[in-house]
Design brief:
Layout: H1 7-20, E1 22-24, E2 31-33, H2 35-52, H3 58-94, E3 100-104, E4 107-113, H4 114-117, H5 130-142, E5 146-153, H6 160-180, E6 188-192, H7 205-211, E7 213-220
Parallel strand pairs: 5-6
Antiparallel strand pairs: 1-2, 3-4, 4-7, 5-7
Amino acid sequence: MRKVSYLPFLLSSMLVLNLSCVTQDAATDEKEMSSTAIGAAAGAVVGVIAGNQVKGDKDAKRRAQATGALLGAAIGGGIGNYMDRQEEKLRQKLRSSGVSVTRKGDEIVLNMPGNITFDQGKSTIKEDFHGVLGSVGEVLKEFDKSDVKVTGHTDNRGNAQANQTLSENRASAVSLYLQSKGVAGKRLSTTGFGSSQPVGDNKTEEGRSQNRRVEIVLTPKS
């Protein structure tokens, strides 16, 4: 009797499922595959590769590949789904706050412009920004299976060492505030980059304004 491999069918079924997990960006009206689908597809591929390393005859390899694909898809899709839900909650909480939410694979980046977060040259969080940062803390407490990196950035005006110190102090201030709202300190790391990582043109006021920021980067726990 001719033996049939179910692996191609399994992978094609996953592809159909992933293509059905297409989302539409409300801001750009563009359609894109969700991170849940991307994670599941990537996990399935990794699972197949891992299953291919199993020793034995062709049937044993096929079974190992199929099992690896299923397990990989479940793990990869689970992480993507977790970050999808966290992203959606953050977008709800931060709508109209001035804080942007950007998704890069399984990484979520919150960009907090310096003009709404701190007074010029200061590292004390503005009082009217406490509510926004408190909302971020609520989401981070709910989604406690992600690591949190807080980074401070400045423009290139003034003394380089002073800018470096200011960026460190601002990152620390945000980190400490999140801890005061119940976010576990062991999840948090802080770094100041001074003016070394600009996102705008320091030759223009608009660009310098973009560079004065604090970012919170969320990634799945390693």
